[in-house]
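Form P-L/3: holo structure prediction, ligand PBG.
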Amino acid sequence: MESPLIRPRRLRRTPALRRLVAETTLLRRDLIAPLFVSETLTSPAKISSLPGQFQHSLDSLVAAVDDLLGAGVTAITLFGLPAMKDAHGSQASDEQGILQVALRRLRSEFGDEVVLMPDLCLDEFTDHGHCGVLDGRGDVDNDATLLRYQEIAVAQAQAGADLVAPSGMMDGQVGAIRDALDGAGFSHVGILAYAVKYHSGLFGPFREAVDVSIVGGGNRSTYQQDPANRRESLREALLDVEQGADIVMVKPALTYLDVISDVASAVDVPVAAYHVSGEYAMVKAAAERGWIDGDAVALEQLTAVKRAGADMILTYFAREIAGKLDG
Ligand code: PBG
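OUTPUT (holo model):
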């Protein structure tokens, strides 16, 4: 048979050739590490469904961030586990709340070397486990929740956040938070908006990590998006940009690569994607059994998320894979 003129394999022959023609390069600076800090712990506690991840004490959080910075990962998002929960999640906005204490500590230890983007939500702080406050019928009250988000945003900004990251999927949350930050003199503090967040089974291990369960067997389907919908995500992302989002995020990542791609071509702000707890846990579980090569699959998955259009990725793999990436 006549050999074809075009032979794509020519460019795959050596590692140097492959590097030269790579269309996507995952870098250390693309990674954002999610971390958990507990008010009650004095030493770190393993999270069994997230092997290699911990609920941190304040001191072990500082050590973990120091280690991340040493490895070239300079951005983190932070979740707080309070000692006390109540109906309004009062610890989320308390100046002495664990998240605020941790932010102040990290800012004083590391200055501006680290980018701090605390999660802004109520579920870790409410006794009912929902991302908002409830009305008389037990439904999440959108506009009453916005008032709480405004208070939390200001508290996090005061404690040193570079960007706040609202993840509760309330309508109007970005605009409300922008107003509150500007009104309190924090026009320089940005918003990383969880613009597109699906009602996903992949958040399972996270719930163990933050000790959250929703009372009465409820779920988040009245505020998180239906996985069946694609166009709706454009609407969510564009609304958030209109309201002042500095970065928009899609979450989870791998089951929504089409959505990441859509959003990346529709907006003119940076796009983040969250490779969530269940995505991490699946890789870890299969790798533990020797069924897949965990490092290879992690790199493949995160490269795919970037290829789809994400400029940055929140991932529990950040520390583990940093050494395999260029800066
Ligand atoms: C809400 C929040 C959740 C996650 C991040 N922020 C849980 C939820 O919406 O149920 C999930 C992250 C993950 O699964 O890794 N505060």
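COMMENT: The longest strand covers residues 31-38.
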